[in-house]
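Database export, one record per block. Field names are fixed; values are copied verbatim from the stored entry.
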Amino acid sequence: MAEPSPITDQEFALFQRLIYKIAGISLSDAKKILLVGRLTRRLKVYELGSFTQYYRMLATGEHPEELQTMVDLLTTNETYFFREPKHFAFLRDEIIRKRKSPTTFRVWSAASSSGEEVYTLAMVLADNLPNTPWEIVGSDISTQVLAKAATGHYSLARTEGIPPGYLTKYCLKGVRSHAGTFLIAPELRKKTHFYQINLMNPIDAEIGEFEVIFLRNVMIYFDPQTKTRVVHNLLPRLKSGGYLIIGHSETLNGITDRVEAVLPTIYRKP
């Protein structure tokens, strides 16, 4: 089959509106090359000659699995273990060590990507709550990265940032066919759960409440209206007295007055 027709500005605008509607992501004009590079192969799979044809196929609602594939391809999932380490130090020193309750300590990584943040949290909780039950929920809009996260299986190149003691205690080095990789220890993985959640929508109460919610490095892709919507969807799931932690390049100024700043990027719900 011949190559699909080059994308037009009008076609690119259709996809900008579509990904904004679904995921709240504002795709800048500079991302046109990225979009073309990632979606052209999908046009070829369906033997479509133009981006308009692909858009129409998605817009009918008759191919939800392909709509999810498009979302997976266009969402950014950069992450690594112990990213922005001051947040984990605060979790350990100010939240966990000052906690008095014996109940299950629950944390939600609301934009968990391929799972590095979830398993970083798991290492910190396992090390600092040896006699208290704990649970971590990871969620993302992308089913592709969630499938990766659930395995807890990573390249050894990803270990940078993991403290040596944690690496020895909680990471199993692969051998033979798994050489060059490591697996998160099963006692950590069994306390983590991954769900597909679109933060643009009201959050199902069945997920429960959390003492800490991490919402880091995702709001940079949202406009102010979407940030407000997402934060207000999350806050009912945060316990009174619980903490909402966002990325170092983000702020909740002008977004919500329902939490109080404790430190830059760390907020507490009264």
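Remark 1: Residues 9-23 form the longest helix (15 residues).
Remark 2: The two ends are 60 Å apart (CA to CA).
End of record.
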